[in-house]
Amino acid sequence: MATKTAPDSSRRSERSRRAIYDAALALISEAGYAKTTIEGIAARAGVGKQTIYRWWSSKAEVLLEAFVDMGERNMAAAAEAAGTDPASVRALPDTGDLAADLKHVLRATVDELNDPAFEAPYRALAAEGIVNRELSARVVEQLLEPGLQLYVDRLRAAQESGAVRAEVDPRIALELFVSPLAQRWLQGTGELSHAYADALVDYALGGLSPR
């Protein structure tokens, strides 16, 4: 008699998680955060809502993990397309031209913020984080801080090469171009464009360059 292979529960769980992530992101984009429910996510993913509650306590937690997962998948796809290691995609470029490197990254950020697939869930997280301080702390830790640290590392490398003054605090310096971009996106006070990203870098570096 042929021996039957027992179902792989880990693979089944991974498929369920992936379906839940995709369902949450799709519903947020289609219906908005307020109208998205655990029941709706479960129905869209083809799982029972008890499955979701076994892993997460709220739709905000589902969305946060789905968003983190989307970012990781995008970086993996970018690395595969470039034929390089995923770790290199996470690092800011260091060509020796600080302005060019920062503009390259900020332009990519503008494209991401203007992408509907990214914008809807990110706005939902930002809005929920205003009233949910615990979620806000997790968003900072899991989504924002890793990217901000890459800017810190690149600016420190620029300090070592003499492109940025030694007394400059990289954590404050990065806010000169990252914060205005985030504020314009959140408040809708103007167009998000490559030209705007370039201007932020030029204005910021004008105050950071050696005197």
Automatic annotation (TrEMBL):
This is TetR family transcriptional regulator. Residues 37-56 bind DNA. Keywords: DNA-binding, Transcription, Transcription regulation. One of its GO terms (molecular function) is DNA-binding transcription factor activity. Pfam families: TetR_C_11 (PF16859), TetR_N (PF00440). The lineage of its organism: Bacteria, Bacillati, Actinomycetota, Actinomycetes, Kitasatosporales. The keyword Translocase does not apply. InterPro entries: Homeodomain-like_sf, HTH-type_TetR-like_transc_reg, HTH_TetR, Tet_transcr_reg_TetR-rel_C_sf, TetR_C. It comes from Streptomyces boluensis. Residues 14-74 form the HTH tetR-type domain.
